[in-house]
Amino acid sequence: MMNYVSEPSRPPAPDAVHAENVTVARGPRTVLHHLGFTVPRGQITGLLGPSGCGKSTLMRSIVGTQAKVTGTLEVLGRPAGHPTLRSRIGYVTQAPSVYDDLTVRQNLDYFAAILDPGRATAERRQDVERALTDVDLTSRADALAGNLSGGQRSRVSLAVALLGTPELLVLDEPTVGLDPVLRRDLWNLFHDLAATRGATLLVSSHVMDEAERCHRLLLMRDGRILADGTPKALRTRTGTDTVEAAFLRLVDEATAEDRTKETTR
Ligand SMILES: Nc1ncnc2c1ncn2[C@@H]1O[C@H](COP(=O)(O)OP(=O)(O)OP(=O)(O)O)[C@@H](O)[C@H]1O
């Protein structure tokens, strides 16, 4: 007789981000209102919406750098901002944060040393070379960061975020100012990171054609989530051909609803 030993039942890995009733105030104003959504693991989720709708504020909340966040916001199974999340998240802000008077490789060496001071030098060098290859900057590794183009500087910031092989990458408008070829290459890299390393990417943009490249979308307007789903589901739901048309239809519907509420008050 054979003994069958049942596998211990493991709870499923939590979503990369789980938000319930998340509200954020900046100064005297509430800029995010009662947001509820999830970001599944191993996929690219696009965060899209017009300028000022709250994309950066939401990203800052997720990485734990935003004050006055209320509600439930869990990231990789921990409360947002938990110290153990620091090495598990890569965050690229809109403004490239690199030192102009260091070369590209020196910038990466410096950040790699801060990220993991105990790591052996040879391993750290390997991490740096891998990150340089990821963003296609090996040929510019010895150039001063201050002598790079805007797009190249953005890619150095991205390389810094990739150093620790983070599980979650939060990228705030990473393709702004890039030419179409670089944009395409970066999107190919994002897909590669999700497919081969199982990374989760949350990428903000207000360029709607980039939405079509995401697995899932969170569409925002005025500090609220307008819609959440795959590009196909959003097109189907709104009876439109593109995510841009779907977004405009949803904005029009929401505006009409707001007006109705105002007139019935
Ligand atoms: N430091 C601040 N103090 C007070 N309000 C702020 C501050 N920074 C941003 N805001 C306000 O918060 C709201 C959301 O801004 P946020 O930068 O998150 O929008 P966004 O969607 O990322 O915009 P963009 O696409 O232009 O970067 C805006 O109304 C903005 O005016």
Give the strand order, joined by hyphens, for the main sheet: 6-7-8-3-9-10
**How many discrete structural domains?**
1
Task: Please identify the structural class as seen in this structure.
Answer: alpha/beta
Percent of residues in β-strands: 15-25%
* Mean pLDDT across every amino acid position: 89
CATH topology: Rossmann fold
CATH class categorisation = Alpha Beta
- Count of discrete alpha- or pi-helical segments spanning 4 or more residues: 8
- Please give the oligomerization state of what you see: single chain
Commentary on this structure:
It is a single chain. The protein has 265 residues and is of the alpha/beta class. The chain has one domain (17-250): 3-Layer(aba) Sandwich (Rossmann fold). The chain has helices at 55-63, 104-115, 121-134, 150-162, 180-197, 208-211, 231-238, 243-264; strands at residues 17-26, 29-39, 44-48, 69-75, 78-79, 89-92, 168-171, 200-205, 216-221, 224-229. Strands 6-7-8-3-9-10 form a six-stranded mixed sheet, sandwiched between helices. The protein has a four-stranded antiparallel sheet with strand order 2-1-4-5, with helices on one face. The N and C termini lie far apart (74 Å). Residues 1-7 have low confidence and may be disordered. The structure holds adenosine-5'-triphosphate. Residues 26-27, 31, 49, 51-57, 206 line the site of adenosine-5'-triphosphate (ATP).
